[in-house]
Amino acid sequence: MDVADTERRINQLRNDVYAVYEQLTTVQLTQQTHGSQLTSLSNTVSRIWTTQHEHGERLNHIDSALSVLTEKVGGFDERFGQIDQRFGQIDQRFGQIDERFGQIDQRFGQIDQRFGQIDERFGQIDQRFGQIDERFGQIDERFGQIDERLTRMDQRFDEHDAKLDDQGRKLDLILEALKIGPN
Predict the structure, then answer these.
(1) pLDDT digit string (tens) for 5-44?
(2) Which residues contact 162 (CB under 8 A, 6 or more apart)?
(3) Nearest-angstrom CA–CA distance, 98 and 96
(4) How far apart are CA 183 and CA 179, in angstroms?
(5) CB of 167 within 8 A of CB of 104?
(6) pLDDT above 70 coverage of the chain, percent
(7) What angle do CA 16, 20, 25 make, to 5 degrees?
(8) What are phi and psi of 153, to 5 degrees?
(9) Listed residue (134, 141, 129) closest to 121, CA to CA
(10) What are the Cα distances from residue 123, in Å, to 90, 119, 138, 182?
(11) Cα 80 to the center of its chain, rounded Å
(12) Radius of gyration of the chain (CA)
């Protein structure tokens, strides 16, 4: 090997060494940048960890508050069950009252039927009065009998009126208990 060849090799090695130093400088700058970025990431991770810890505490607080609310809702479920049972009883009572109203309607139907019969009887009585007008002379003898008959009918009307008044009072009491009607 000759000197020129050796010099050329030395120059090449020098150039290679300078290139390595330049690359090492670039690597060093990159490492410094990465170090800064890692420090920044470490700070960010620390802040995230602190925030997560705060959120965990908040979630624990919310969890305990939800437990209290869950217990309260459980109590409300029990109370709603009792209220539903009470409404069932009230519905049953209304069914009984409806049944009673049905019976009262039936009795009013019977009373109406009796009034129809009484109206028919009054029609018959009117016919009789027509005959009585024609036979006025005979009426004087039978007038006492007819008065007695009318008196009995009046007593029946009075009894019906008393029954109707009693039924009216009962209806008023029912309506008042149900809070229906004018106050």
Answers:
(1) 889 898 998 998 999 889 989 999 989 998 899 888 888 8
(2) none
(3) 5
(4) 8
(5) yes
(6) 93
(7) 150
(8) -65, -40
(9) 129
(10) 48, 6, 20, 39
(11) 10
(12) 56
One-letter identity of residue 79: R
Dihedral pair phi/psi, residue 83, rounded to 5°: -65, -40
DSSP string of 113-128, one letter each residue: HHHHHHHHHHHHHHHH
Angle of helix 3-134 versus helix 136-178 axis, rounded to 10:
160
Chain centroid to CA 143 = 71
Asked if residue 149 lies in contact with residue 100, where contact means CB atoms within 8 angstroms, the answer is no
Spans of all domains in the chain? 3-113, 135-183
pTM for the full model?
0.32
Do the beta carbons of residue 104 and residue 166 sit within 8 Å?
no
Q: Which two tokens stand for residue 136?
A: 């006025």
Long-range own/partner contacts, residues 117-123 (CB < 8 A, 24 or more apart): 118/153, 121/153
Distance of CA 155 to the CA centre of its chain: 55
Q: In whole angstroms, what is the distance from residue 61 CA to residue 54 CA?
A: 11
